[in-house]
Amino acid sequence: MGYSYTAFREPMLLYEDACNGKQYEDICDRIASMVVMCPEFVSLLQIVAEHKGIDAMVITCGPRRIWEKVLQREGLSVHVIGGGRISDGFVVTADIKATLVERMQTRHKKKVWAFGDGPLDVDMLKAADQAIVVHGAKAVTVRDGLKARHVLLPDTTSQRLDTSRLPRIKLTTPAFVDAIFGTTPSHTADNVAHATDKNAAKLLMTTMRDAAVPAVALREHHHRVGWYLATEYLSQNTTIGIEAYPISHVNGTLTNGYRLHHENKIIIVAIMRAGDPMVLGISDAMPSAMFLHAKDPADLKPEHVNQRHTVVVVDSVINTGRITLMYLDRIRALHATIRIAVVAGVVQEKFITDKKLGGHANARLAALRVSVNQYKGFGATDTGHRLFNTTQLK
């Protein structure tokens, strides 16, 4: 039956005969748990979600519920058009994909960017204003008459398409993001979380401010602060979130444990040297994450961010934010859409009120305390000197 309407309707009828609604949901849950979204698309969709002028949708010829569950697991609210059950009321074919693009263009006056990876997407790609062929591990056949560019996912995939016909792009470059948004979008959501007024923060910050605390104890305390900020704030869905995974219960059964979402695709960057003790605590909270010491933004290389979901940048104190922003600029130069979480013990209030993080889309800040005082530490007052017992240096 090929890719006909009848061919796509037949599985829907078979699903109805094979299982009831609850069984169907359970099967979709199992399949969705095996699906891994490309990090490049996850980070791009996160930015789209924050941009009021742009919407994203998934159009699938397969079961709608699988896509909805995968997107929900990623913390993404994206509309899905697809079938799967008779109750959905329609069947999606290749023609339907193209028709939906044309309707968005003519009825709703929208400019449409379309991404597709196979023959079912060709007509949709032809209809779109901008077409991107996603070239992955499987072979892609491109018909004559398709004007498009292509992207390799993952980036290490061997090149098999004709780049003279389909020029290659990267989803993670600032130029590509600017092409979609006009300019790189500023952050529009509430992107700052801090514990300043919480009793837990008041207890934790006391030792950090006590000049009588020796270096060894102070380092251990920064370690605890890092763990607290990771578990309290990085675990929030608006920053990184958590995911369930199976563990052995003490009673001998399997149960759910929890970890940071895509923990093994997170890289933690310690801004040296004051960020080191705090980053050790964060690392305790996400032991599968990559860990990088950085004395200079140039220490961050393309291989550190490629195929990653999140970069966590850690410093003890953010005063003017000049150094922190240098690191963020470096990350954005390497990967225009990757999620960034900045973690600090103390952040100067003006850094927040001036919205200095606002120029970096898909970025969040988590801090133990916001300070109204602005000063540059030196000698005995410098956090780095206090942490490493070098307060006698000027």
Automatic annotation (TrEMBL):
Q: Which PANTHER family match?
A: PHOSPHOSERINE PHOSPHATASE (PTHR43344), URACIL PHOSPHORIBOSYLTRANSFERASE (PTHR43344:SF20)
Superkingdom is: Eukaryota
Q: Where is the Phosphoribosyltransferase domain?
A: 196-390
- Protein name per UniProt: Phosphoribosyltransferase domain-containing protein
- Cross-referenced SUPFAM superfamilies, in alphabetical order? HAD-like (SSF56784), PRTase-like (SSF53271)
